[in-house]
Design goal:
Structural class: alpha/beta
Order of helices and strands: EEEHEHHEHEEEEEEEHEEH
Helix content: 10-25%
Oligomer: single chain
Largest sheet: 6 strands, mixed
Amino acid sequence: MRTVVSPFLGTNCYVVSADDGSTVVVDPGAGVVGDLLALVHDHALAPVALLATHGHVDHTWSAGALASAWGVPLVLHEDDAYRLGDPFGTLGPLGSQLAPLAGTLGDPYREPGDVRTFREDGGVPLTEAVGLRSLHSPGHTEGSTVYLLGDADGPEDARDGAAFTGDVLFAGTVGRTDLPGGDAEAMRVSLARLAGLAPRTQVLPGHGETSTIGTERRSNPYLRG
């Protein structure tokens, strides 16, 4: 796994590859097209899909350009697909504040032409090679989804799990619920499910530093207890 950090709001873009080079890019934020094209070329990777933890524009900005360059679709939960057609309007007042900043990044936003959606938890379309699984985790947005890798949802002593948590869970805090589509009660339920993952599971958030589920159980005020 490799990480590219977007200059727009510091979104973590994760590049997850199987042994045969099959690759899924999670959360292709703004200003990362050049870096990702170079990374894939230099390591002889074979992208099969782009994946979004949710539909906010700081997690989908480069999806259109990369989907076109690689001939792959963007995959996300169906409840957030509507955001792709109006990336700033669906953010409410925050969108009008972010639009001018995003316009300085060089690569214009392009709505992806090929979008695949899913609804049920479990296997994620087109990501079988890397073994990602979805866990619908609404609260930040209606379609927010955590993607699990390895033994994240295995027994308590599982060692090799990871969770791409998007803007649901961060190191020491959680995502906001006051934007359009946010729901504090749904977030509470989602966090309770995440707290049940194996303690050694790596938390790979949409912004900021990594952590583990065990660390967040002990120190994150939203997960304690």
